[in-house]
Amino acid sequence: MDTFLQQLFNGLFLGAIYALIALGYTMVYGILRFINFAHGEVYMVGAYVAYFAASMLLPLFGAGWLAFLLLLIIAMLACALLGVGIEWTVYRPLRHRPRLTVLITAIGVSLFLQYGGQSWLGAAPRAFPTLLPKSTVSLGPVQATNLQIVVLVTTLVLMLALRFFVMKTKLGKAMRAVSHNVQAASLMGINNDRVISVTFAVGSALAAAAGVLYAINYPTINPLMGLMPGLKAFVAAVLGGIGNIPGAAVGGLVLGIVETFAGGSPLLSPYRDAIAFGLLVLLLLFKPGGLLGKATVEKV
Amino acid sequence: MTLAKILLTFGATALLFVTGCAKQAETDSDVIKIGQFASLTGGIASFGQSSDAGTTLAIEEINAAGGVLGKQIELITEDDRSTAGEPANVVRKLIHRDKVSAVLGQVASSMSIEAAPICQEAGIPMITPASTNPEVTEKGDFIFRICFIDPFQGKVMAKFAKENLGASKSAILTDVKQDYSVGLTKYFKETFEEIGGEVVAEQSFSSGDTDFKAQLTTIKAADPEVIFVPAYYTEAALIALQARELGIELPLCGGDGWDSPKLFEIAGKAVDGCYFSNHYSQEDPSEAVQDFIAKYKAKHNAVPDAMAALGYDSAYVLVDAIKRAGSTEPEALRDAIATTSGYKGVTGTITLDENRNASKPAVVLKIAGGKASYVATVAP
């Protein structure tokens, strides 16, 4: 039982990070109906921004809450700009081209950032500095660290903030309107380009946050670090029903927990990733809309 | 200032001379070309950079002392970016385009296993400095190694865990993507069970993974007394960190794949009290070792790890064989390497057996305070 609870917590923690990344996929899909495959790389850039900013900030502030929050905000802002920049320079000129063109371009951007990163930043993994002093915490039978709790709390706060933003603000309402019907939204006087930019900014900022949270827990970063979590988060987004924001959160958590239980069982542990992706295949076979998504019929 | 200028001019002229000659090398060969492939970037870059630094140092010394057979040695190094598939490409390039006489490399066994058949087919001798998986030299009679092999290393750590640490129950966490790790796991388990120990949990992961909590939680539940982690340094460091986070305070044991400054940089205090087997200890007071460390420090401003020492030895063993063969003709060179006997290197006396492996003692190191210190030497 103790082991079960511990694994559940491990999975929850991993899932929280997947969920943060998955939110970006799902928001962009909800509005533009395409998968932004460069999203995993934005997450990587977020971790690197924090890494370089830390080398400047840590001598000034020392490790602690102030440094952590500052770095989190710096990484989120930098990646929000990056996301908007990518949309502006790469996706916007292709707005009225077939969706497949944009999708392939997204893969191009992803590879560009991966290999550009290897060339500019070096391919060797770097050790991420300590931002918050680590201590272990026992929650009943579950062993956790304060860092893991920081991750869970930050994720929760960011998700609630996103929920508030999408449901209660004017811009969020505009976002939902564009996601519902682009033409109708623009006829109602909504500036579609602005809504799309905001979507990219918010999604990329969340990915950056995930990158920083990941790096403080698994203190190595490298230019290819976004590849696997990016794919997993994509699976999580589809699992929850792509385009559906609460779905991405649920999908992330489910994936994290399934993966952890698979990784922890002696027979299945070599097949951990295969199980994560196998889950995607199964879900698409039996419930193509995702856990929280609605099945829709596409007219052709 | 003037001295520096003279040296610079001299160096530049020498460089011109070497490159100028390299063009004609295929016909009248005023230089001997030796190829090297290493992971200079990527996940196991620390290995490649160290072994390359060691090899370069050796070649520079040999050239400064007049080269071999009256010729200078040109070392051509290629980076395989720690990526499966690349060793085959770069070794083909070294053999067919650069026309090297012999190939040095690699540290990681999976990489050497990939390159070995290519060298064997082309009939070019290959010496791996540090690949310990037995399969490497089984690829053919042109493939050699100057380090011990995993059946021995696995046995050393199993005996050490049982006898020195007094553990009768062990858990193993294997990297299924690395032949090195799979091999070590097999031999550790065999010996540990043979001498009356019990393996209570076997878990696995793939190189590049960062989350090991699931596997470690299962291992913790099985209640072992020691955990054997035959992984490379990046993963080993993350495993140690996460084990401590889960409240596992047991000693972790590993192999030579742990030997990198990155291990301490990433894991910090988490690896304190852990043990790993290695090819040499920097604390060895012998003259050969201390001399090498001094020279290496002077050139690279760092303390050499085992990969650097093995890289250094591999170059010297090769050049020694070229000298004895009297030519770089592949078959003669192969036979000369095969008869290497009693060569006194930094990492011990190197004698190649009929399976083209070196039989050498291993050292066991204990980690404390960001440093590995000598515990014991185990002879084969």
Here the CATH topology of the largest domain in chain B equals: Rossmann fold
How many beta-strand elements of chain A?
4
Q: What about the largest sheet of chain B?
A: 7 strands, mixed
Give the helix proportion of chain A (percent range). Answer: over 70%
| Contiguous runs where pLDDT drops below 50 for at least 5 residues of chain A | none
- Overall mean pLDDT score of chain A? 89
- How much β-strand is present in the residues of chain B? 15-25%
Helix content of chain B: 40-55%
Which stretches of chain B of 5+ consecutive residues score pLDDT under 50?
A: 20-27
Strand order of the largest sheet of chain A: 1-4
How would the global form of chain B be characterised? globular
Quaternary structure type? heterodimer
* Top CATH class of the largest domain in chain B: Alpha Beta
Number of helices of chain B: 12
Q: Which CATH architecture of the largest domain in chain B?
A: 3-Layer(aba) Sandwich
Overview of this structure, please?
The complex is a heterodimer of chains A (300) and B (380). By secondary structure, chain A is mainly α. Chain A contains eleven helices and four strands. In chain A, the strands form two sheets. A two-stranded antiparallel ribbon of chain A has the order 1-4. Chain A has a two-stranded antiparallel sheet with strand order 2-3. In chain A, strand 2 (136-139) and strand 3 form a beta hairpin. In chain A, helix 9 packs parallel to helix 11 (272-286). The mean pLDDT of chain A is 89. With 380 residues, chain B is α/β, with parallel strands linked by helices. Chain B folds into two domains: 2-148 and 285-361, Response regulator (Rossmann fold, 3-Layer(aba) Sandwich); 150-278, Rossmann fold. In chain B, the strands form three sheets. Chain B has a seven-stranded mixed beta sheet, sandwiched between helices. In chain B, helix 6 links the parallel strand 6 (169-175) and strand 7. Residues 20-27 of chain B have low confidence and may be disordered. The chains are: A mainly alpha (300), B alpha/beta (380). The interface between A and B is large, with 40 and 36 residues.
